[in-house]
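To close the chapter, one final illustration. This time we ask the reader to focus less on the individual chains and more on the assembly as a whole: which components sit near each other, and how the overall shape emerges from the parts.
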Amino acid sequence: MPIFLPCFISVFLILSSVVNAQTNKNITLGSSITAGDISSSWVSPSKDFAFGFQQVEPGNFLLAIWFNKIPQKTISWSANRDKLAPSGSKVELASGRSLILSDPRGQELWRAKLSSGSPAYAALLDTGNLVVSKQDSVVLWQSFDEPTDTLLPSQTLGQGAQLIAPYSEQNYSSGRFSFDFTTDGNLALYTTNFPLFDSLNSDYLDYESQGLGFQVVYNQSGLLYLVGNNGSILTHMFSEDQVVSEDVLYQRAILEHDGVLRHYVYPKGSAGWSVKSFAPNNICTAKLQDTGSGVCGFNSYCQFGSDSKPHCLCPPGYSLLDPNYEMGGCYQNFPSQNCEAASKEKNEFDLRVLINVDWPLSDYEHYQNVTIDWCREVCLDDCFCAVGVFEETGDCWKKKLPLSNGRNDGSVDRTTFIKVRINDDISEKNYRKSNKDLIVLLSTSGLTNIVLLVAGFCFCLLHKKHIHVTRESKTTGKYSIHTFSYKELDAATAGFKEELGQGAFGVVYKGVIDDISGSPTSIAVKKLDKLPITADKEFTTEVKAIGQTHHKNLVRLVGFCEEGIHKMLVYEFMSNGTLSDYICGLPKPAWEKRLQIVHDIARGLFYLHEDCNSQIIHCDIKPQNILLDDDHNARISDFGLAKLLGPNQSHTYTVARGTRGYVAPEWFRHMPITAKVDVYSFGILLLEVICCQRNVQAEDNEDGGFVLLTEWASECYKMNTLDDLVNGDTEALANIPKLEQLVKIVLWCTEADTNLRPTMRMVLQMLEGLVKVPDPPNPSSYSSSMATRTHSEQWVSA
Ligand SMILES: *[C@@H]1O[C@H](CO)[C@@H](O)[C@H](O)[C@H]1NC(C)=O
Ligand SMILES: *[C@@H]1O[C@H](CO)[C@@H](O)[C@H](O)[C@H]1NC(C)=O
Ligand SMILES: *[C@@H]1O[C@H](CO)[C@@H](O)[C@H](O)[C@H]1NC(C)=O
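The assembled structure is written out below.
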């Protein structure tokens, strides 16, 4: 008993002091609040408002004023939104100084800038205004004079004051918009030069200057207006008949993250805030800005939703720069048209249609009295043209990147063409048409080329629909992948004990789970430690997409785990290791077995490129990424991971990886990355399987891509000394024509010119003997410039 008594007393003392702090209207000198101490805050006499710390992310706090009696966290003011306070930070009304926020080490994060003198007390008023006063009650500082994004009833703004919108709904940092009462007495809504807040772009408010304003008033009736020098009302921000009634408990006006100034009311007895009025009416049709991106970020467009809110959308072929931030702009998620190779590349592009979307200030050409088809073609033909816009009046505009001031403006009838890269090229389309036809891959005759291109194009248009339908019907939710918790995987791998290998993205562990029937099944758990931070939603979407990919030559993804920093993929376990270990093992694997393996890989890749729901470019085909199952069937692993990286990161990652031996030259040449990069890597892999030799002895040379083994293969082919290449492999030499056929396929696959390089479909058909393999492009000039090649190549079916 004597032990408990002191505890009891001290708890009582703490409680009583908290109660004290909350009922005492005046905050006395030396009072302080510590971040992380939940019970402490200073409340207004009516308890409607409170002042203290709000945790906005783990371990980081906002010193703020908030509505104290409602369940929704609604912050009306904050001191440090661009410099959050760590746990243990303290705000103190320091004697002889000011109201000061400092971090646990005593570093000052913020202070109330007093007009003069030293403070005597502070008080949080029932209006939500925090004041610091002198002994004689003269106010030295008040939060109403330093608004953040919100105005409360009875608050006024003087000339030069501004509200700055928060960054997003969840993030209170300064964002892209400001509402200014300018020093010359006008009201304006600006976009800031995000993320550098030091300059303003244009005013987007459609507001006629009414004359010199003296003060902006937000009064108890919920009216927000500009008052002139003589006291007359010059203009109202919200409509004048919006007067709030008796049964409204609270109200506020806030410049929100989307640039809209909204008047919110909280009716008595209701469960939350509702919008009563907002300005401007449609921010998407805001005034145009000469510089800057406009209301939405670059390359995106603003669409006013049925929820009366603006939404920033990316056009087809573009993705959000920051997947968590709608207003941050979009990037083109394919390589732009290369003007140097424009005519060659033309057929790799197509136009997607949007209705009424426009980027009015991104024009660089304007045509009149033209047709919609003409407008379409003229953009498609022009490597500079990113977007074409056709208006019913016969006007046609070409637009260039970056696109700004994007908007869906229903007031004019426009058809908008967005240029996107399609991954299939025309030769492939032709090939698809029929195996028996004569296929001309590259012809020196311009006329033939044009005829073929046109034919291929029509064919492609005709067949698009059909292909689409069959692809969809193939994947109607047949497979589902499992979501694992970290705990489950920790248990399955016995605490990540048995390491199977080091993958590109992190370590792979062996584990065991029970399958549906309850019997134990082995799994491989890939920890994605080295994966750059991506949006969780995007991660889940991509992983689910990968989970939809099923083929007997792919390692099946059975599930994933996504808990905060823990991102893991769970695959079926492959008992026979990697192809890399297999081909280099002794004795040499049987020739027939090796042939079967390359067929397996080719089928898996073909499926990824053409047959699955959406095309997957692997980007990292090499023997280490090919696994062998119980029956020594080859299965491709790590497919789809390039997508988790995104195109830019994938590029950096692939080039930086140093596995140059497998990497197609276009990675180093800033050329478009297409499925042909996998064909290149497949060629190298095929050669390794033929020779049972790794590429390791190959030295990288400067122009990247060409390695000793391929050059040697080319040499052996040219000199007709294939027995050297396979190092006296009797099995291989027993069928020289077959060996020669394979080497020719290798040479085609590793062709530097992507246009000459076949698709996986062609490779597969060559492997299966459905088509005769043509002689490779002049092997003697193999590693020299492709520009010296003059002869045309013909692909003849068997
Ligand atoms: C707050 O302090 C001031 C100055 O000491 C004093 O005039 C005022 O009466 C105090 N108010 C309350 C409610 O204690
Ligand atoms: C909020 O956004 C800013 C600006 O992009 C960023 O620096 C900050 O880390 C974000 N804060 C949180 C809590 O996400
Ligand atoms: C708010 O301002 C309007 C316009 O001046 C006025 O009619 C109204 O009475 C004011 N409301 C209050 C509560 O002062």
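The longest helix spans residues 446-474. Residues 56-57, 167, 171, 173 surround 2-acetamido-2-deoxy-beta-D-glucopyranose (ligand 2) (CB under 6 Å). With these observations in hand, you are ready for the problems at the end of the chapter.
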